[in-house]
Specification:
about 350 residues, alpha/beta, eight-stranded mixed β-sheet, 8 strands, about 15% strand, Hydrolase_4, Serine aminopeptidase S33 domain-containing protein, MAG_DAG_Lipase, AB_hydrolase_1
Length: about 350
């Protein structure tokens, strides 16, 4: 993880930007701005969605903790059916594959609001560092609560959409705002990290001790999550184009925060009450599909649906065959349409 990738046909100046240390947000912003047109021109089904009529806007806003947060919106030409608030996964950003997902949702009539968490993508903060998962969730609550108050959105239904770690964030947002959301779409949610990815008990205890003194160090041994998450061979190559994603070993405090968050979420499944759509690949080696099944069975929501996809892995909307990606999207759009039909 973290190896430099050489892209054919680009200038030495651009390659230098891509090879820069991404710990600082300025380097991430510079790389994304210079590379975004190449990113969005790759031969991936997500970037073949018609988007000429979509209204897209990028913005930066300083939050209550003094951090500059990047956000982007995608709106259809006509009044949105509802607004989807996107929560991206670990190490990711809302500006690459998230861009394709948002365009797809907007193409079907949904407004989409997305943000990069502090320390990820184009938002300020040390790259890949989560000093507190609860604090990160508070940042999401603050940002999306402000967005929901805007005149163009305040009378529309609002849905959470969480991928992987974003699924855990969405559930925590729901916990903090139990009556504020019309539903949640959870794609391979991180309710539990797969056992093969988690360090052994002994190593975890050692890491806990070291994290007290070196919380930001990239020392947690793990498998290549990109390799585990993506099934389709061609789409494995595409992941390299996500140039501002965090690709190094997890930072010590980040890893402990994620482990603690999943333990907490496992104990909160019975308190989940909003309408739920849960989608998970049965062959997921990054997040545990059995806990998605437990969420479906144990949540107190009277309106819930679970799709477990045979032979599918973690990156359901980015890393599977085109046929599987379209199938998953179809299930998502059908569910959203059913829940906005009366709006």
């Amino acid at each position: 993880m973290g190896n430099r990738v050489k892209f054919p046909g680009i200038t030495d100046e651009l390659q230098k930007m891509l090879d820069a240390d991404m710990d600082n947000v300025d380097a991430r912003r510079c790389a994304r701005e210079a590379f975004k047109h190449i990113q969005l021109s790759i031969d991936h089904i997500l970037f073949k969605v018609p988007h000429a009529g979509l209204k897209m806007e990028e913005s930066y806003e300083v939050n209550s903790r003094g951090l500059e947060i990047f956000s982007k919106s995608w709106l259809p030409e006509t009044r949105p059916k509802a607004v989807v608030y996107f929560c991206h996964g670990y190490g990711d950003t809302c500006t690459f594959f998230g861009e394709g997902i948002a365009r797809k949702l907007a193409y079907f009539g949904y407004g989409v609001i997305a943000m990069d968490y502090p320390g990820f993508g184009l938002s300020e903060g040390l790259h890949g560092y989560i000093p507190s998962f609860d604090q990160l969730v508070d940042d999401v609550v603050e940002h999306y609560s402000k967005a929901k108050e805007k005149p163009e959105f305040c009378n529309l239904q609002s849905f959470l959409f969480g991928e992987s770690m974003g699924g855990a964030i969405a559930l925590k947002v729901h916990q903090k705002q139990p009556n504020s959301w019309n539903g949640a779409v959870l794609v391979a949610p991180m309710c539990k990290i797969a056992d093969n990815v988690v360090p052994s008990w002994l190593l975890t205890q050692i890491l806990i001790g070291v994290a007290k003194f070196l919380p930001t160090q990239k020392l947690v041994p793990t498998q290549d999550l990109g390799e585990l998450a993506v099934r389709d061979a061609k789409k494995k190559e595409h992941t390299a184009y996500n140039v501002i994603s965090y690709k190094h070993k997890p930072r010590l405090q980040t890893a402990l925060e994620l482990l603690n968050a999943t333990k907490e979420i496992e104990g909160l499944l019975e308190k989940v009450s909003l309408p739920l759509l849960i989608l998970h690949g049965k062959s997921d080696l990054v997040t545990d599909p059995s806990v998605s099944k437990a969420l479906y069975e144990r949540s107190i929501s009277s309106d819930k649906k679970l799709f477990l996809y045979e032979d599918a892995c973690h990156a359901l909307l980015e890393g599977e065959s085109d046929e599987m990606i379209l199938r998953v999207f179809g299930d998502i759009i059908s569910w959203l349409d059913e829940h906005t039909i009366s709006s």
